[in-house]
Design goal:
The complex is a heterodimer of chains A (about 375) and B (about 120).
Chain A: H1 3-38, H2 54-63, H3 75-91, H4 110-118, H5 121-131, H6 135-163, H7 171-176, H8 183-186, H9 188-202, H10 213-216, H11 226-250, H12 264-288, H13 294-321, H14 326-348, H15 352-370
Helix pairs in contact in A: 1-11, 1-12, 2-11, 3-5, 3-11, 5-6, 6-9, 6-13, 9-11, 9-13, 9-14, 11-12, 13-14
Chain B: H1 5-33, H2 64-87, H3 93-116
The chains are: A mainly alpha (about 375), B mainly alpha (about 120).
Chain lengths: ~375, ~120
């Protein structure tokens, strides 16, 4: 690698960083507007046309706010925790293509690299919670460790089942394999698993349990303010966008579906439009669903998503190994998805008395063991 | 080794460096622009408006411990699965069914943990 190449690469990375910041500002505006419309409000209106400059004003405010460090905090860890959540969410962008040619490095193991880095932020969250010397932060970081670690499994297994179809970890190859049928049609179950576990990995409502304001008052971020806090905020939106772009590329056909554009910029627009659509669905979830309870979160992940994600691998394996036609996989996937939906529905519509009875029995058993 | 292999991973490392520098710059700008008036009251950890009890770093029930162990098992499994998914369709039936057996054995671990009540958050 020559010096010239390295400089070119650094220039590309800086451009990427700038683009990401602009994307995050647009997402903040979009989320506030979308949530406001869901609740029949106007949302930000004052700063700029329809509040378009509101995120910029917020960012400037955060920049000039006092950056407090609590007296009892472990200063070095407190200071560096935001870096540890930011760097993994930035480096995955090296290999995410936004069109066939619009990618910094088309890594052969791209998807593996993304999955590997996606679990690292949990270290930063735990350090942030621990170093704050605050009990809410500590509780929040313990919750975040349990949550992120649990939902990483369904997301990795969904990715593995998806990779079975094109037999490649290269993102461009995966997208090019969807010229006729996007993988969402082959694996509706995989799409559901990836999206749900992705929302949980990012920690968006209904899975915002580790920084729930009404429970742990902001979780690992309670003691953060100013620029340090803004990094956590930035990362949350970058990760939301990563989940959106991965769903668009892996399941919705990226730039190749429904028609293959002649010009590269058209493909780029396709990917961006699909990504914003997925992100809007995530905002919609936030506007609609209440937060899960922490035990519901764990049982949803381990008792439903994990077995389903393994079943997804098995059915995709049979489809691929015996070269069954594509519609068989679609049918099996849909059947499993419906089964999962029925299980959740049954749990949801169970009489309240039965739930109360079960929780009481559990509490009694726990007390017996303690005694 | 494929051509451009080193350059590819150098790009990943450089991205990490650029990310670190960018955030460092952000902190630097904020340190210059933001006011800095620390006081004893501001340094107290927030505990819903009452004086905080000491000993934040006292003993805690680390509930995620068992989940972390289970996660480790499945993450190692994922490391085995990733190379397998790239070759199994071209390999023999034994390669395919062997991995299915492996998956079932690990699923048995989840069932065991489930029956033991480990998957309940208490």
């Amino acid at each position: 690698m020559t010096v010239r190449e390295a400089l070119l690469l650094a220039g590309q990375l800086l451009g990427l960083l700038t683009a990401l910041v602009v994307v995050v500002l647009s997402l903040i505006w979009l989320e506030r507007k979308a949530l406001a419309r869901f609740q029949n409000r106007m949302g930000p209106m004052r700063v700029g046309f329809h509040g378009l400059l509101q995120p910029v004003a917020d960012a400037l405010k955060l920049l000039v706010k006092e950056d407090l460090v609590p007296t009892w905090a472990d200063r070095a860890l407190f200071w560096s925790a935001p870096l540890m959540v930011f760097v993994p969410s930035f480096v995955v962008w090296v290999t995410i293509p936004l069109a066939k040619e619009v990618v910094i490095r088309n890594l052969e193991m791209g998807l593996f690299y993304i999955v590997a880095f996606s679990i690292l932020p949990v270290v930063g969250l735990v350090l942030a919670g621990w170093s704050s010397a605050n009990k809410y932060a500590m509780l929040g970081s313990l919750r975040s460790a349990a949550q992120l670690v649990s939902y990483e499994i369904p997301i990795v297994m969904a990715v593995i089942a998806l990779v079975m179809v094109p037999e490649s970890l290269n993102l461009v190859t995966i997208v090019e394999g969807q010229r006729t049928v996007p993988y969402a049609a082959l694996q509706p179950l995989g799409l559901a698993l990836f999206l749900l576990a992705g929302v949980a990995e990012v920690g968006r409502t209904p899975f915002d349990i580790y920084f729930a304001e009404s429970e742990v008052v902001g979780g690992p971020f309670v003691e953060y303010s100013g620029a340090h806090w803004s990094v956590f905020f930035l990362v949350e939106y970058i990760n939301t966008f990563v989940v959106g772009v991965l769903v668009a590329l892996l399941f919705l056909g990226g730039w190749t579906f429904p028609l293959v554009p002649e010009a590269a910029w058209l493909g780029f627009l396709w990917v961006v439009a699909k990504t914003y659509l997925v992100v809007l669905v995530m905002f919609w979830l936030r506007g609609t669903l209440p937060r899960l309870r922490v035990d519901q979160l764990m049982s949803f992940g381990w008792q439903l998503l994990v077995p389903l994600s393994f079943a997804n691998i098995v059915i995709t394996g049979f489809y691929k190994f015996y070269r069954w036609p594509g519609w068989t996989l679609t049918l099996m996937s849909l059947a499993l998805l419906l089964l999962a939906g029925w299980l959740v529905y049954r749990r949801q519509t169970r009489p309240a008395a039965a739930t109360a009875e079960e929780m009481l029995a559990r509490a009694r058993a726990y007390r017996r063991r303690e005694a | 080794m494929r051509e451009g292999y080193v350059a590819d991973w150098a790009a990943a490392v450089l991205a990490g460096v650029v990310g670190l520098l960018a955030i460092g710059l952000l902190f630097l700008v904020s340190a210059v622009l933001a006011p800095r008036r620390p006081s004893a009251e501001k340094g107290i950890p927030y505990e819903s408006g009452i004086r905080p009890a000491p000993y934040t770093w006292s003993q805690l029930h680390v509930r995620y411990y068992l989940f972390a162990i289970l996660f480790l098992v499945f993450d190692v499994e994922a490391v085995f699965l990733f190379p397998w998914v790239l070759v199994f369709a071209k390999s023999g039936a034994i390669v395919f069914y062997e991995m299915l057996v492996f998956i079932v054995v690990l699923l048995f671990g989840v069932v065991y943990a489930w029956r033991k009540g480990v998957l309940q958050w208490r």
